[in-house]
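Bit of a strange request maybe. I'm writing a small parser for structure token strings and I need a real example to test against, not something I typed by hand. Could someone generate the tokens for this chain?
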Amino acid sequence: MSAITHEQSLEQFHEQLAYVLANYHSHGKSISNYHNVVIGGLGGSGIGGRIARLAFLQQSPVPVEVFSEYGLPAYADEKTLVILCSYSGNTEETLSMFAQAKAKGCDMICVAASGKLKDLAAEQSLAYYSVALGYQPRMTLGFGLGTLVMIMGELLGGDSTALMQDVERMFQNSSDIIEKAKVMYDAFKPTIANKFVVVCDLPYEAVAIRFCQQIQENAKGEAFVSVLPEANHNMIESYYGKLDTNFLFLNSGTNPRVNARFEFLHGLLSDLGNVIYQYPVADANIKTQFEVIHATDWVSVWASNDKEVDNMQVGIIMQLKGHLEGLK
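Reply from user aminoacidic:
Good idea to test on real output. This should exercise your parser:
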């Protein structure tokens, strides 16, 4: 079977959410039983955890952290819930976190399509959620983030089913989102080979990271995140002229003082002749974030096509895996 292309993944994105809704089952866990939650994952399997963490930041009574590492923090213990995500089920860092979680007596939930993580979850009777096979891992955010939204909603004593049904309906006809993506892409098309800097507020930090990951993997371009207000205390001092940079602004609008910072920065960069596009968002709810992710995913694919690079291949990443395998 041939691999599912990025375009097909985006055109059929609602199917990922429908899969989550059809296959989700109760884990029966409550946040009151834990002192903290750790979500572990790398790359396309880890970004869903970062988005989910921020989406539930104001609801969780205990800390929720995301680790993309080989190890867990020292505080992880029997009162820690560890949620591990790996599309392949064989990500070495994630499997290392699994071993540490087991040794520390942590409770666990696993999300994987196949591989050793799936096998370990079955062997040890852990809560486990499946993901459909055949996709590029970076194009499976609907599976990963959708599942995490359901897991976190239940964990906090709620039910995210209606929310995810609403998101799934939005993607049954995504023409409006694609039109927004085209407007955004037209702003960047003349300078598409330049690096990207995504200026965002905290609620959109993980979405910004996601876009950078997609530009890096799909379009083989440099991309970085600049979070306000922190970046106004340092990064802003590098803006004294026109830069070889495409600026994307993502602002939830939830903090008036941060809004003022965006306004100032937009004026500063515009006056210097820089390329800027501010995506039209009015909130930070998960449905809107799914929309922005989808639109920016399209931009990364179109950028790869214009640059004539193969967005299905990640040659250097595969070289690195071969190098690490040779060190075993």
